[in-house]
Predict the structure.
Amino acid sequence: MSGFRIPLFLRGEVVEENWVPFGGRGPESTFEAPDPHDYVERLPLATPMDLADLHEITFDEILDVLGELGRALDFDTNRYIQEAYSAALQAGNYPASILKNSYLMLPHAFDPVGLREIAEERIGIDYLEGWVSKRLQDGRELRIRAFGSRSLHIPAGNGGLISAITIIRNALTRSDAIVKAPSNDPLTAVAIARTLAEVAPNHPLTKHLAVAYWKGGDTDVEEALCRPERIEKIIAWGGFASVKHITRYIQPGLELIALDPKRSATIIGEEAFSSEATLDEVAIRAACDIGVANQEACASARVIYVLSGTDPEGIEKANRLGERIYEKLLALPETISTRPPIFDRELRDHIEGSRLTTDWFRVVGGEHGEGAIIVSQMDQAVDYAPLLSCRVANLVPVDKIEQVTAAINAYTQTVGIYPESLKQELRNHLPLFGAQRLTSLGYACHVTTAAPQDAIEPLRRMCKWVVDEHCDPDEVFPLWRERA
């Protein structure tokens, strides 16, 4: 895989020269980008005062530009998006049907109605538009405004929508963004930026967006950027190593907003076995949580706890559910799930080992790398659970819910639960163990950006919450006066 180039986008200017080679994630993967060392000094704003123009335009104008941008991201007519899709197909691990679907969804991500809801729910548009006043009990008046920040974004490369979310969040918060293009999605952020420059040339939103590629860990580039006088926030998605690496730059005046990788869990109550129709519904919901985007997402189901019991009858129920989930998994539409193009070799070896230990595990499918359901014949997950991927999940029968809560920890992002009554029962307890999002079974990967993420509020944290206090000595006791 080779042959594509990642242009540099500098606040409306596209740089396509001074190319240097880089290695991708595969052993034979190469591409080119402008030498980042020659342009690093041009990436940040010259002065914080340059952010003033973003705070002078109305929120409605921001939505209008984003809406026009979304309409211009049509896959059939936008050559930049087509190039981004071709590059991601080479650089990433998604099959064509799933990857293309993510690009077809791009225009919908910029829908002004949805973006207004995000801004209102997660920040409050009044705070983005100006100063919001509130009088406190001691008599002082607080005037609060959410200001944008100078930020460095390190997005994940698992699908083009992450780059879109990054650029949208930057615009809604009136921030300035330097986006580091990920090697496994090298052109999407550049494609969106170039389209923005054509839709809104010289607009503040265009002038406050830069997209560049450099190899993660290049200290010459990162030490030049990661200074409080140049950026105020680092928003980092990605693996443990990359997020851990970026913490070396954190200091007073420079905040890290870490959207680091998580694992997820699934809990299915005994109600799943109340009828064949119910079992079918539960199976398709669970298959969807496993299969969407070929199980690449943090929210994907991997270990599924089933409150079937561990007596012979309960184990048989779990086995029956496992078979039904496998059937539904193979029947999912190719736009959301396919046989993985690359199957992890170490995981395959573990599956074949489990296939031989029939007293402990029952393996449904997996002979052809299409995915598999491993049903534990006891109340323990497979010891290689962290490797579960490629549409492989582990069903674990349990007798009581306490065996599930013990498996929830600070790395647990999403918990898909069936039925709703069980979710209501657990919603005040699972967060105490670390769970960050509870959702209906079947919706683990059907995520809305109008909600908090990873138990934090990234949009609020991207803003600087500035206070203007008005203290009238007749209302607020002055310290320079003696009390009567």
User: Anything to note?
Assistant: The first helix runs from residue 59 to 72. Residues 8-260+454-469 form a domain with the Aldehyde Dehydrogenase; Chain A, domain 1 fold (CATH 3.40.605.10). The longest strand covers residues 141-147.
